[in-house]
Amino acid sequence: MEVVNALGRRKSAIARIFVSEGTGKITINKRDLAEYFPSSILQYVVKQPLNKLGVAEKYDIKVNLCGGGFTGQSQALRLAIARALVKINAEDKAALRVEGFMTRDPRSVERKKPGQPKARRRFQFSKR
To answer: Could you list the residue ranges that cross the membrane (predicted)?
Structure first.
C-alpha cells in the first residue's frame, strides 16, 4: 500500500494526514498523539474511526495540524482519518457515515457586526 492522504476541517482547524501501513503510531506535528493531546477524551475522539473499523494497530498516521483550538483540531483530525480510511477501503463508508464521522461540521464562529460589541450582543439600550 502506498501513502494515502486526506484533509479534514472543523471551525478554523485544518488537518492534513498521510496514512501508510504500520503499527498504529499517530504523529502530530512531529509529536506523539499522547503528547499533543494530553486529554484522554481528545485521544478517544481522534481514534474513533480507527476503533470503529478495528484497524487501530494497522496504519501509521502522520498529521500536519494548524489553526483552531484543541477541540476543533481533534474533530478535524477525526474527519481526515475517516476520509483516508474510505479512500483505502470504500466498503467502510456506510459504517463510518452511520456514526457521523464522514460529515463535515459546518458550524463556525459568526462574524462580529459593526456597531455591536459581539456577533449578536447589542450595547445596552438607553431610553433617555
So the answer is: none
Question: Distance between CA 114 and CA 48 in Å, rounded?
Answer: 41
- Say if residue 1's pLDDT is above 80: no
User: Which amino acid belongs to residue 20?
Assistant: S
> Strand, coil or helix: what is 9?
strand
Give the mean pLDDT of 26-38: 94
* Beta strands 31-32 and 4-10, pairing class: unpaired
- For the domain that residue 16 is a member of, what is the CATH number? 3.30.230.10
The residue written with cell numbers 450582543 in the block is 121
Domain span at residue 78 reads 4-99
Determine the Cα–Cα distance for residues 99 and 109; give it in Å rounded to an integer. Answer: 25
Q: Is position 104 within any domain?
A: no
Tens of pLDDT, residue by residue over 70-91, are: 999 999 999 999 999 999 999 9
Residue 81 lies in a domain: yes
Instruction: Report how many domains make up the chain.
Output: 1
Residue 18 lies inside a defined structural domain of this protein = yes
Q: Would you state the pLDDT for residue 2?
A: 87
Residue 41: burial class (beta carbons within 10 Å; 0-12, 13-18, 19+): exposed
